[in-house]
Specification:
Layout: E1 5-12, H1 18-24, H2 28-41, E2 45-52, E3 56-63, H3 66-81, H4 85-91, E4 93-96, H5 98-108, H6 120-134, H7 140-159, H8 169-180, E5 188-192, H9 196-207, E6 212-217, H10 220-229, E7 233-236, E8 249-252, H11 263-272, E9 278-282, E10 299-302, H12 304-312, H13 319-342, H14 346-366, H15 368-371, H16 376-407, H17 410-421
Parallel strand pairs: 5-6, 5-8, 6-7, 8-9, 9-10
Antiparallel strand pairs: 1-3, 1-4, 2-3
Helix pairs in contact: 2-6, 5-7, 5-13, 6-7, 7-13, 8-9, 8-12, 14-16, 14-17, 16-17
Length: 447
């Protein structure tokens, strides 16, 4: 059985609440280690990539048996994150074949994002692919699938206005801030961590009049660089808590395993602030701020799910563009699935080429006695004529094979072609690239 089935197992903001997603999140270094571990233990999965963002955790895999691969991936993820399998299965989805291809392309084109049209997901998908390549977990199918997803995302951006309108998590956060505060001109923002969405949110607040910006980050040099770019002040990460009393807006995006701030941390701070409102934007997965902080008087905490819901209120403005994007995605899914099916013809095409070349050489040998009487240049002409004729015949045969393979079962078409031409070759080509063995996959039939 050939390992050419694309399958996806995961959960996202559409299926699972934030408290589940944050338990499953993998940071950058963990992804490489996880794929390395999967590479050693996988039996059903032959290629794999792990996508872990604020809004989704997904394993994109290739296998001969999608059901066995999905079960293997579920076991692997739940063991890695120490999560009960039943709990994971309550919120997860599993996709195979065309559905998996469509999902990957829709994710890359930001059609499955919390905020449709946001640009960050494409960069996150590229990072996931690069990590999988570095881990040696990617072969012919995933190479093609991810690069196709990237090109589809680019085509959607170019052909539609899906990215227009400024609807994003960061703009939703700024909108909320303006509702909570009468004016932003005299307010102070404290950035805890320097993630991309946090930076976008802070920049938007500064443009709207926030006069004071404090930046803290585990890597102090990053805090210094960002603070200087935005006209703010860098604060050492180990000593940021005393500055909370100054902050009207706190943006959390640090990589954490447990909350940085709890109610006991904020209670004294709010007394020092005389209960002046504090707006806390938690962009972390796992979350930076304990949700129970919201119970404190004067504190307003919003996490990614909250902000996503607010952003969704403006999503109708992009619906028409999203419909156009879906048409593009479906067309590109057809193209990829056609290529995937055509891989079954690769061994047959090779066998047919070889068979026709053998017949040409046999025919030349049969007439070698009179060919020997020709001048060298005339023999070269005969040789060129025979090669040109067989190439034209071969081109016609290969074109028809590919066309029929698109319309019918490719393996059936391949078997008929081999029988008619007396060409030798296996009924199915070998697996493209095995996680456990590596190596080169079958030739790309589009070459």
């Amino acid at each position: 059985m050939v390992a050419r089935n694309l399958c996806i197992v995961g959960l996202s903001h559409r299926t699972a609440p934030l408290e589940i997603r944050e338990r499953l999140a993998f940071n950058g270094p963990e992804i490489g280690k996880a794929l390395g571990s999967l590479k050693q233990s996988a039996k059903a999965v032959t290629e794999a990539a792990l996508v872990s963002t604020c809004n989704r955790v997904e394993m994109v895999a290739v296998a001969a048996d999608p059901d066995a691969a999905c079960s293997e991936v579920i076991s692997f993820i739940t063991e890695q994150r120490r999560l009960e399998r039943k709990l994971f299965e309550r919120f997860h989805y599993r996709l195979a074949g065309r559905d998996a291809v469509r999902h990957l392309f829709r994710v890359g084109a930001s059609l499955d994002s919390m905020v449709v049209g946001e640009p960050q997901i494409l960069g996150q998908l590229k990072a996931a692919y690069a990590q999988a390549v570095e881990a040696g977990a990617v072969g012919l199918i995933l190479h093609r699938a991810f690069h196709k997803a990237f090109s589809v995302a680019k085509l959607v951006r170019k052909s539609t206005a899906i990215g227009m309108g400024g609807v994003s998590v960061s703009t939703a956060a700024v909108k909320l801030a303006r509702q909570i505060f009468d004016s932003l001109k005299d307010k102070t923002v404290l950035m805890v961590g320097a993630g991309q969405m946090a930076e976008l949110t802070a920049r938007s607040l500064v443009r709207l009049g926030v006069e004071s910006l404090l930046v803290t980050n585990r890597r102090f040099e990053r805090a210094v660089k960002l603070a200087s770019e935005m006209g703010g002040t860098a604060v050492p990460f180990e000593h940021f808590r005393p500055y909370l009393k100054l902050a009207d807006v706190v943006i959390g995006s640090a990589a954490v395993s447990e909350p940085l701030l709890r109610p006991d941390d904020l209670g004294p701070v709010m007394r020092e602030r005389y209960n002046r409102p504090m707006f806390m934007i938690d962009l972390g997965v796992p979350r930076n701020f304990d949700p129970s902080i919201n119970a404190l008087d004067g504190v307003f905490v919003y996490d990614l799910d909250d902000l996503g819901q607010i952003a969704a209120d403006a999503r109708y403005e992009r619906e028409q563009e999203a419909q156009r994007a879906e048409i593009i995605v479906e067309r590109e899914v057809d193209s990829f699935c056609h290529w995937l099916r055509s891989l079954d013809l690769v061994p047959t095409i090779k066998a047919v080429r070889s068979r026709i070349e053998v017949l040409r050489e046999l025919e030349l040998k049969r007439h070698r006695s009179w060919l020997a009487t020709l001048a060298p240049e005339d023999r070269s002409r005969v040789e060129a004529l025979s090669r040109g004729l067989t190439n034209k015949i071969l081109h016609q045969i290969v074109s028809e094979l590919r066309s029929l393979g698109h319309e019918a079962d490719a393996q059936f078409v391949a078997a008929i072609a081999r029988r008619l031409l007396g060409a030798q070759g296996s009924d199915a080509s070998r697996s493209s690239l095995c996680l456990r063995e590596g190596g080169q996959g079958d030739d790309d039939p589009s070459a």
